């Protein structure tokens, strides 16, 4: 083991994973960011807390818009 090696594997999500499940993982584990992997298991993106929060707010506003429609 080297000093740069993590003590335990960092949780990841895949580009095919459900966004709600990814958000739940982030909250339950209190992660500062989500590491998103592509289908081949390679790093695809890092989604930080600000991005997740903005996305959740946008999704909530979109749902409110559609629910308020006749």
Automatic annotation (TrEMBL):
<protein>
    <recommendedName>
        <fullName>CBS domain-containing protein</fullName>
    </recommendedName>
</protein>
<dbReference type="InterPro" id="IPR046342">
    <property type="entry name" value="CBS_dom_sf"/>
</dbReference>
């Amino acid at each position: 083991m080297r000093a740069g090696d993590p003590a335990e594997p960092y949780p990841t999500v895949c580009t095919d994973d459900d966004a709600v499940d990814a958000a739940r993982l982030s909250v339950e584990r209190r992660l500062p960011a989500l590491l998103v992997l592509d289908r081949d298991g390679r790093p695809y993106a890092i989604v930080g807390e600000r991005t997740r929060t903005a996305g959740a707010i946008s999704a909530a506003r979109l749902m409110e818009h559609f629910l308020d429609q006749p």
